[in-house]
Input
Amino acid sequence: MASPSDQSDHKIPSIHEEAASLRQVLLIFRRRWRLFLITWIATVVGTGIVSLTMTKQYRPQATLEIRPETPLISAESQDPAMQASRNLWENYYRTQESILNSATLHEAALKAIPEPLRREFEEKPDPVAAFAKRVDIEKVRSSFILKVGFIDPDKEKATQIVNVLVSLYLEEANKHLRDLRSGAADVLSKETLPAMRQNVNDADRALRDFQAENGFIDPQEQYVALANARRTVLERIIQIRLKELQLRAQVDALRDPGLDGGLYNPIFQNTRLLEILTTQQEQIESELASQRRELKPDHPAILQLQDQLKRVQDKIRQAIRGMIGAFETELAAADAEEKAALGEQKRIEKEMADISMRVFQSKRLDAELTTARELYNAYLKKHGEEVATSGGGLGSVRIIDKAVVPVKTYKPDVLMNLGLGAVVGLLIAAAGMFVSEQLDDRIRSAHEVQVFLGLEVLAVVPKLGDKAGQSDAPFLLDERASLAEFETFRAMRSEVAIRLEDIPGPKVLAVLSPMSSEGKSTVTVNLAKVLAMDGRKVLIFDADMRRPTMNSNFGSKEMPDLGAVLRGEADLRQAIRPSRIPGVDVVGMASGTSHAAELAGLPAFDEIFKRLRQGYDYVIVDSAPVNQASESALIARRCDAVMIVLRERRTSRGAAQASRRRLAGMGVRVLGAALNAVEGPESAYGYYGYYYSYYKTRDDKNKA
Output
């Protein structure tokens, strides 16, 4: 059996690789180019014939410009009425297109054209529908242009009808616009303007009533006056609080001045009485210090000075207590003044809040009055515009070009039709080519085997004799066979021998085919023959247990056979028979069985292959078709490799690909393929194609 590495090297291509490659497409085109060319030419010629035989049609056209209307009375861009007017004209373009396609306009145009021109339409069951079918309106995108045309074989008749249709459209549009403007002016004067005037009066009355409730005093001015008063009160509160801070600081300083340090307190310096007392205290203290240096402490003079100093200090303390009381009185007055100022602040702020609400109401009423007046004035202007333009024509529609008699036909455009036919013909021809290929995908050449299956072709086998492939019996080459036919199998022998060189010892090769009657048995016996001619010991193992052919045609029907060996009733050597091919033995079933799948799965099969390898150089296994017998792939797994036999013009690519996938799924090594029953030389392929003409000519001369 093949090694895992060998099996991995011969796996079937992936799904992506099976997709139609460029080579496959080119090969299909090579096979079907006649069908492709005939289909394409037929399509182009048919298109040309139809185009040339069609009645010539003409399409004269008139060009209209339909744009947003500009009012005769100018207005500011922010005017609400003008903004509303512009919005009304946004869909005007589509509206005019609908009018041009309306049945009413077509009926009026049909009546307006001369009697000879409308006679053709009056003969139809629905004249208006027949007329409308000829009208062709073309919109020019990103513009306000409409092109109105009429299709007819008579170009002068079509030109006259287009001009009549456009004239009636303008008359109808102008009449409709005049009616619309007149109606709009009446609605504005009778309904809209009186209602808006009433809104103005109501807003003015509400504002006046509000002003009367407030005494016709401007709330805004009241608010400003109160804001100034509040600012004055806040400044006064700040001054009072600063004064309180100053008084508290002075009181705190006087309450704990320090007797010595208090003499230098700035408050003392600013008070005349304290200034005199502190001066006396300093003089007495100076004199007392001087007397103490000269007199004793209990001296009357010293005692007198001490008494004077005490009296002065008592006076100073009395003066300080008096000043503290005065400061506390001022501080209480400041507190009372601050409370009064804070109350005034709250009162002013409350009045400001009330005035603020009145200011808001005043502004709202004033804004309502202003808006009502502006809206009234805008609609008053609009009313004036409608009255001024109600008698005018349609300014938004303008005829740029009237219809003129055309020189060039509209339909058919032969060159355009031929170009379109050529493109469509290519598509139809390609589709037909691939559909035909799917309906008939039989293999026709060795090149197709390489491209579609990814297999190398080991040999191209010619059709052998008149009976080859017409019966179940394999066809064996004999002395009557041509040298070219023998050379085909000799080339196959060389390919097989070279490709199996990596397997030491005896080789086991299975010969399979996707379906029945493809010549695998013929290839088997002839390959065995040329191998034996090369001096090798060969055995043909007929593994087609459903329809065995080897024993009946080349061996013997005597028992025991392969079935007896598998059942354990006989030894393998008893089942092997010499064939009528020199150097080739054969083993197989004497008759078919319906239990082939079960027999192929027996362990005895493995033992048979093991024993056959010991007695032969080559074992050629002829098995049942892969796609029709489940045991074929199982038997092939026991072989070193397989060769797939494909029959030219009979084996389909689908069947061959299915067998290839099945073998790859079982891990079977595929050497290549043999293309069988080829009629005629296979150009530029292998030995057979190269020497076919030479050997064929020589054999024909010998027979003669």
In short: Residues 219-383 form one domain.
